[in-house]
Amino acid sequence: MDGEYDFWLLDLDGTLVDVEWSYTRDVFDRVGERLEYKFTDREADILWSGLTGSRDRQLRQWGIDPDEFWTVFHDEEDPMVRAEQTYLHDDAAFVADLEEPVGLVTHCQEFLCEPVLDRLGIRDWFDARLCCTPETGWKPDPNPVYRVMDDLGVGENGHAGVLAGDGAGDVGAAWNAGLDAIHVERVGHERRGRCVRGDYRVESFDELF
Q: Are the C-beta atoms of 167 and 197 separated by less than 8 Å?
């Protein structure tokens, strides 16, 4: 794939990095106590990894108000602890070698994302980055993608780009923005409960090169 695209966009959590399960379990235990809801391991996994698509829709199906959940969830997350328990996937190292412009489009909130980038030493991998908010929209909405493309200077003139991520929302955002999509399956089809389509479907970025 070397030279096939004029620019690359990437998701962060579940795509380039992941968090130790002990951290996830601890956060959901504390959130559950405050919401008076006991999250099972499966439910915590579904929400953390976005296995069923829209997390807000999933929360409503469980009778949990999404706004209340996210307020409590972000209040219970410790940026420095999360950064300490976040690790970089070995196959993500290719990003450092890309010669094309590279952008980051992530649902990870800025107060959590920044310490992770610093601790892992990957901030300079990206020429532009955006942490999605209600104002920017959320993938598969293409607007966050367009904003990063504009920051990279590739929003016009027919530049060919690709977006890589671990979820259906990443693929949807890519296609909605007119880009090719790479789906990297980190959790496996059995655990996800379905297959996610993409222009490329891989279990490791090493398969692309």
A: no
- In angstroms, the Cα distances linking 69 to 13, 33, 161 are 19, 12, 35
* Residue 105, beta-bridge partner list: 130
Do the beta carbons of residue 85 and residue 27 sit within 8 Å? no
- pLDDT for residue 3: 77
Architecture of domain 7-18+87-208: 3-Layer(aba) Sandwich (3.40)
Which residues, at least 6 apart from 58, have a Cβ–Cβ distance to it below 8 Å? 46, 47, 52
Q: Best-predicted range by mean pLDDT among 7-21, 39-53, 189-203?
A: 7-21
173-185 confidence digits (pLDDT tens): 999 999 999 999 9
pLDDT digits (tens, 9 = 90+) for 26-41: 999 999 999 999 999 9
**CA-to-CA distance for 140 and 138, rounded, in angstroms?**
6
Residues β-bridged to residue 103 = 9, 128
Q: Which residues contact 7 (CB under 8 A, 6 or more apart)?
A: 100, 101, 102, 103, 149, 152, 154, 159, 161, 162
Predicted TM-score (pTM) of this structure: 0.92
Quote the DSSP letter at residue 64. -
- Cα separations in angstroms, 51 against 1, 19, 90, 168, 188: 28, 16, 22, 9, 10
What ranges do the domains of the chain cover?
A: 7-18+87-208, 21-82
| Residue 39: closest CA among 67, 3, 1, 73 | 73
Question: CA 148, 45, 165 angle in degrees (round to 5)?
Answer: 25
